[in-house]
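FAQ: What does the model actually see?

It sees only this:
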Amino acid sequence: MRDIDCAEARRLLEEIRRNRRSQSPSDLRRAAVTLGYTIDGSRRKGSHWWARKPDSPRFPIPTTRDPVSVGVTTRILNYLEEVFDDVCQH
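And it is asked to produce this:
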């Protein structure tokens, strides 16, 4: 398991929270990868990447909308913040 850069993860999550209406799929992917998720593009269901991490919720990242809708971005942000709290806020 690779080390997680908590400072970088915090910066990315703050950026997503500040600009929820303008997040691209690659922005969300970058934040997920920084928190230790792997992006599974081979198991694409329609137009989504799957973010997976053991012992954490998996979630889809839509790839056809840029920017991603604010509701979907908020839901993904909630997953990422839970993982951040578990990993970086011992």
